[in-house]
Every structure is written in C-alpha cells, then in structure tokens.
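Q: Could you fold this chain for me?
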Amino acid sequence: MKLALAVTMLDEVNSVLLTLSRVGKKFATIHVVQSGEEPNPQIEKALQDHKDGHYTCLPDLDTRTEDEKQGKGERFDIGARAQSRNFSAAFSGIARTMAGGKKIDYAVGIHGDTALLHMYGIEFIIGKIKKAKCDIGVSRAMGQSLHAASLTREEMADPDHPKGGRLQDHTNKDFMPQFFVAKSSIVERLACITVTNPWCMEQCVGDAIGDADEFVFSHTAYGFADGVIYHMPSPRGWKH
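A: Sure. Below is the predicted structure, expressed as structure tokens.
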C-alpha cells in the first residue's frame, strides 16, 4: 500500500520535524506547503533526504507588520484562506506525482501542529474506509456550532456579537482539517479547495470533497489519538 502525506504549516517546525523523523519513510511522497517564504533548513534537509519529499514556501497571507497587528484583533479569515491554498498546493503535488506514474492508494492530510508518531492509527482508519467502501476518513465536531459563512467581518471582530450558526450534523459534509485520510480517487478534489466560508475551514474541505462518502472515525474534533498529537506548540524564536 502506497501512501502520500500533505502538510499545511505556518511555523510549527518541531511537530513537522517529529512527523518526518517518526513516519516520513512510510510515505511514498510527501508535500509540505508553508505559509512564509523563509524555509526552515531542518525541514528542507529532512525532505531532501526523503526519496520523494517536496517543500514549498508561499507568501504569508497576513501581511500586517507586528506593530500593525497590535490591538487590531485577529484576522479570522487567514486560517481558512491559507489552509485552503496550502492544502490545494500540497494535494496538487500529490496529483502530479500520481499523473507521473507513481502509484498512490491513500493520502493523509495534516496541519503543521499535528504530529504523527506511528502508522497504526492510520492503518486502522484505512481498514475502516475499505470495509465501509468510503472515500475519506474524517473526524467531526458533531453537535458543535461553528462559524457560519453569513457572518460579516465586523460581526466576527465584535466580541459581543453572537458567533456560530453552522451546526455540525449530518446535513453537511464539514470535517476537521487537522487530520484526515483520503483515497487517491478524490485527491484532485482536495487539490481545488475553494474558500466557501472564510471563518470555517471545516466547511471549505467538506465542500471540496462534494458527494464523496465519509467514514467518520471520531464524532468529536480531537477524539482520535492513536499515534496522533494535536496542537503541538511552535518553537520559540522561529519566525518567517
């Protein structure tokens, strides 16, 4: 079984290096796409040493200076915009690898602050996908209310304005982008992720897969932890 890995990252160097050191050799191809044009030399070397490792640095979409960011509030749309762009670039790379003749059966997508320690959990999910005859294995924040696309920028910035409005249930295909496993047959869909909701990346990836059948391996956002660590902190001193 041949696997691909797609990573979208900002400055999460420690967790990306941990993933590459622990499971990098298990993947036939790896595509890491970073927001920020200053490459990290350790990640660069780790991917150069891989048989088919790729490292792409793209402009940081939050172009404000540190002084400009002070007191201006969070740019709530940066996450969905950057992750949609970066995942699209990473999965486009996997699609090109497949088009070049390399066999890929499944592709794993993770955020930079998600670390993979071993492959047992991934193998378990793939087994469930096969048995259920589904296209993708995902976790979902069922019952939670995520931000609706109808919210305006002013409403998002207003601490007193109610947020949410998009219930996580079976009426939509939203899923958690921090960790998922997709069959190679839908890689091209993930190579064209549109920002359908600037406040909710879960909707963007869900909309991208369209009518693909989901196997939900966790009905809570971070409930699956077999070889997976979520939200590892970024190292101090690394900026781009």
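A (continued): The domain at 3-61+76-157+164-229 is CATH 3.90.550.60 (Spore Coat Polysaccharide Biosynthesis Protein SpsA; Chain A).
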